[in-house]
Amino acid sequence: MPLKLIKTDTPPATHPGAGMTRQVLAYSDQLMLVRHRFEKGWIGTPHSHPHHQLVYVLSGSIRIIADGEEAIAQAGDSFVVDGNVEHQAFALEDAEVLDVFTPHREDYAL
User: Fold this and answer.
1) Above pLDDT 70, what percent of the chain?
2) For residue 43, what is the DSSP state?
3) pLDDT of 33-67, one tens digit each?
4) What are the b/e assignments for 82-101, b being 16+ CB within 10 Å?
5) Which of 24, 44, 47, 102 is the most buried if burial means most Cβ atoms within 10 Å?
6) pTM of the predicted model as reported, rounded to 2 decimal places
7) Taking 80 as the threshold, does the pLDDT of residue 2 lie above it?
């Protein structure tokens, strides 16, 4: 199928942890688009994965630490985390982000 349209309300949302909602919007073998919503005060677990990750902040602000570097990303900002780099995020306020992973994350796939 050369084109696959996915309506916003179609993919189910999951709650992998307190204060976070995940919605896989679309994916192929090479790419995955995911919406994450974080409640103010949410603290992510430090982790790494082999996937390259591009993050676009839709609303709110988050603090990100990646390989010892720290930054604040606000609505309209974006950043990249290379594969196998340990990183962690903190929600400074209610926030929503779009994540793009390559290749797609099999652990997130529907």
Assistant:
1) 98
2) B
3) 999 999 999 999 999 999 999 999 999 999 999 99
4) eeeeebebbbbeebbbebbb
5) 24
6) 0.90
7) no
- Residue 37 tokens read as 């919503």
- Decide if 104 contacts 18 (C-beta within 8 A): no
Q: What is the pLDDT of residue 85?
A: 98
Got the DSSP string for 77-108? -EEEE-TT--EEEEESSSEEEEEEEES--TTT
Most distant CA pair in the chain, distance: 42
Take residue 18 and report the two structure tokens written for it. 């307190």
Residue 36: how many other CB atoms lie within 10 Å: 21
Owner of token pair 């073998």: 29
Angle among Cα 5, 6, 10 to the nearest 5 degrees reads 155
